[in-house]
């Protein structure tokens, strides 16, 4: 799809306003700058699919912001982005919610280096990046664990249940038919007395045709 920056900006601003996510001019500029940095770094490090670069602002940045339509992050909350890659969904959400603390983790060091470079360039103070595997993370607790296109729900639940506060949520961005995956996660949780006790799936196709068969999946304790 051909880029139309003004149309994309208006699309994002309108949807965010309608869903109670107020973004000021500086935040919009930071989101666009992040999309440019991602596109540029993506030429040397594979952070996002290259064939999708033309509408990167919509496919990746807007897609990440949609989490905020279902979970408005609060001041002082601690959020983990597990398997962040090039900072998705953590960096767009850190821009949109400057009073919330985000930690981005990934098993791949060069992706974390790229995240750190983008965080510094964008001047973000509420987001940090660390090279570590999810299963090695100890001593930290989070209000929300986020994950976009990383692992089956059952596996993400096993990681998240050890690091989520009692009322905490696991929020995933996923695609395709998720019925079997959700059933597996619920079965496994019942056997292990773990996360999740319930899973809710929210379709995203109303926000843009490129989100057809994409969902926000929320796993509750
Ligand atoms: C398909 S990429 C998605 C990246 C990003 N979330 C996005 O939406 O563009 C999956 C990422 O998860 C990371 N990953 C997979 N398993 C992980 C684990 N157990 N701990 C930390 N990172 C992991 C990989 O290194 C990779 O960068």
TrEMBL record:
* Main location (coarse class): cytoplasm
Q: Which UniProt keywords apply?
A: Cytoplasm, Methyltransferase, rRNA processing, S-adenosyl-L-methionine, Transferase
**Known role:** Specifically methylates the N7 position of a guanine in 16S rRNA.
Q: Which residues bind S-adenosyl-L-methionine?
A: 83, 88, 106-108, 134-135, 148
Q: Name one GO molecular function term.
A: rRNA (guanine-N7-)-methyltransferase activity
- InterPro entries, alphabetized: rRNA_ssu_MeTfrase_G, SAM-dependent_MTases_sf
Name where it's found: Cytoplasm
| Annotated GO CC locations | cytosol
Q: Which PANTHER family match?
A: S-ADENOSYL-L-METHIONINE-DEPENDENT METHYLTRANSFERASES SUPERFAMILY PROTEIN (PTHR31760)
Pfam families given in the database record: GidB
Recorded family membership: Belongs to the methyltransferase superfamily. RNA methyltransferase RsmG family.
Q: Which HAMAP family match?
A: 16SrRNA_methyltr_G
Q: What is this protein called?
A: Ribosomal RNA small subunit methyltransferase G
Q: Which organism is it from?
A: Prosthecochloris aestuarii (strain DSM 271 / SK 413)
Carries keyword Kinase? no
Which CDD domains does this one have?
AdoMet_MTases
EC number(s) stated in the UniProt entry for this protein: 2.1.1.-
The organism that produces this protein has a lineage beginning with: Bacteria, Pseudomonadati, Chlorobiota, Chlorobiia, Chlorobiales
